[in-house]
Each structure stands twice: as C-alpha cells, then as structure tokens.
Amino acid sequence: MAAAPVRVDVVIPVYNEEKVLADSVARLHAFLSDHVPHDWRIVVADNASIDRTSDVAREVIERFGDRVALVHLDQKGRGRALRAAWLGSDADIVSYMDVDLSTNLEAFPKLLSAILDEGYDVAIGSRLKRGARVTRQWKREVISRGYNLLVWSLFPRRTFHDAQCGFKALTRRAVERLVPLVENNNWFFDSELLLRANQLGFRIAEVPVEWVEDLDSRVHIAKTASEDVKGLLRVRFSPP
Asked: Do 205 and 122 touch, CB atoms closer than 8 A?
C-alpha cells in the first residue's frame, strides 16, 4: 500500500500587506509547484489588517483555488497569527515565512528534507550559520547579533544560532507540544518557541539561507527589543 502523501502548510502572517500580498503568493505558489513534491497549501494569516489585505487574499484564493486559504484574526500579533494557523491545521508539517519573501525560497525544500529525511522536529533558516548570505543595514545587523549574543549568554546550551529568522518548519507533534507553552503572541513568539523546544529535547536543524532585508519592515525595534529581553528572562527562569 502506498504511503499517504505528506501534507505541508506554508503560513504567511500579514498585517496591512495589500500592496505585496498578491505578488508574493503568486511567486510562492509557482515555487512550491515546481520544487515541493508534496500536498502543500499556502495559508494567509491576516492578523487584524485595516486595509484591503483580506480582500486581496480572497482574490488570490479565487485565482488559485484550494491551494490557498485565509485565516482572519481580529487581534494583531504575528505570534497570535501563527498560533491560530498552526493549531488550526491538520497538516503533517507546518511552516511559515515572511510575506516579503526576504529569505530565498531555494532553502525551503531543505527545511522539509531536514524533517522528512533526517528526522528533525524543527527546521529553521539561519542568517548566522556558516554559508548564509545576508544583505541588510549595519544597524539591523548589530542589533540582531547583539540579541543573539544575549540569547547565547542566557541559554548557553541552545542548539541554534538565529532565533528570529522568519523561515521555520515544524512537525505536527512539535506544534501540538510546543505552541501551547508559548505565552508571547508577538515578535518574541519565534524565540520562545525555539527555547522551549531546546528545553524539552526537540531536535532543531538550522539551514543557512540567503536573506535580503525588507526596508519596509513593520518591526518597531525599540519596542521589540524591550519585549524580547523581558521574554528571555521569563523563559530563562520559568521551566516549561
């Protein structure tokens, strides 16, 4: 008897992305069609956009059919959007990437291979692992490396380098075990997820990626940095 096809959900969390959403989904759809031999679906997770993002998503669904789905939330928060999309999915592997597709899509099959062929529970893109190629402003580079140095100092036994790259994939088992433990619903969601995965012994694969900074990023650096530091201290001193 033939094995059941592997089902993969690729989630794109969005907030007020009416201008880029259709093009990004079209590019992603074309890439997955050509390079991912599994039963995949793109899920647009709209976290309380106040522009036409949801309307654009529906237009994309009309174009591509059941290969694209929409999850709409009434509250903001990237982590909240991922939580809803992942826990609401029954796919074997759930993943996500930023809507700007800053990470070169060529690395996505490698995430899937780490899970399906090598037995990892979590696979993440890394801008800090040897072999990665990164293009961004020096200020963001310094902040990113400073943050990851702080993570390293608080969690010296961690098995990953880049906590914040918006390019990740997890098994169904990992999602169901880890996501309910994550308290943060915003940008720290990624870091908390990985740190809890480490604490519980989940295997994390790290794939070097090519990454180009989106100059229209919606991340508020000062606010996010404060949230991250508080989150790191909370996770460090509270067991899962």
From this structure: yes
Dist. CA 30–CA 125, nearest whole Å: 20
Q: Residue 178 is inside which H or E element, if any?
A: helix 172-178
pLDDT tens-digit series, residues 6-34:
999 999 999 999 999 999 999 999 999 99
Contacts for 232 with CB less than 8 Å, ≥ 6 apart: 150, 151, 154, 191, 195
The CA distance from 95 to 45, in Å, is 12
Which amino acid does the sequence have at 21?
Answer: L
Give yes or no for residue 113 having a pLDDT over 70: yes
Beta-bridged to residue 96, according to DSSP, are 11, 168
| Contact between residue 193 and residue 182 where contact means Cβ atoms under 8 Å apart | yes
Identity of the amino acid at 54? S
Catalytic residue annotation:
190
